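Try this one yourself first.
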């Protein structure tokens, strides 16, 4: 469980990937009740707090108190 990891555990996990470039990950985002759901294929910058939550009976990381800002599609959107 992520809440059981220390900062040393996270550093060790991240050191497994020697490539310094970014790599894609997926995290659920908890939107405030008044926030409409984004349209499909919308590119977003998301800012919020890292938290753990239970989804489908499993504890996992999520982004809470999220603020969404629409951004233009990157020049190479799926290159990673």
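Now uncover the answer:
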């Amino acid at each position: 469980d992520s809440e059981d990891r220390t900062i040393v555990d996270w550093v060790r996990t991240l050191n497994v990937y020697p490539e310094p470039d970014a790599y894609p990950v997926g995290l659920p985002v908890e939107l405030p009740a008044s926030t409409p759901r984004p349209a499909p294929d919308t590119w977003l910058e998301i800012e919020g707090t890292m938290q753990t939550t239970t989804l489908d009976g499993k504890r996992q990381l999520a982004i809470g108190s999220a603020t969404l800002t629409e951004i233009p599609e990157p020049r190479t959107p799926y290159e990673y």
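Discussion: The longest helix spans residues 7-15. The first strand starts at residue 44 and ends at 55.
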